[in-house]
Write a structure and sequence with these properties.
The chain has helices at residues 8-20, 53-68, and strands at 3-4, 26-35, 38-47, 74-83. It is an alpha+beta fold.
Length: 90
């Protein structure tokens, strides 16, 4: 199995797209791989503590669609949701 990390420009695009969503306060932990024609993306979205579970779920779906729409190849995305209060800022 031969795979590789996505180029820095694509990772930056993924970050920028996710940050464009009005409910996303931050993005971290982006990990990418490409195996064949499929791009695999994992990331953490930082959301308000008070966001309802259904709204947080919808935000993740919306961000996923925004990213998928920007790539011509198949994309598999895994999004982890973090409340702002538990995100460690450096």
């Amino acid at each position: 199995l031969m795979d590789k990390e996505l180029p820095d420009e694509e990772k930056q695009s993924i970050f920028d797209i996710a940050k464009m969503h009005p409910d996303v306060h931050g993005v971290h932990g982006i990990r990418t791989r490409q195996g064949g024609k499929i791009k695999f993306i994992q990331m953490h979205l930082e959301l308000d503590d008070d966001l309802s579970l259904i709204r947080a779920h919808n935000v993740a779906d919306e961000v996923e669609k925004m990213i998928v729409d920007c790539f011509e190849s198949e994309v598999d995305i895994l999004i982890h949701l973090d409340p702002l209060s538990v995100v460690v800022k450096h």
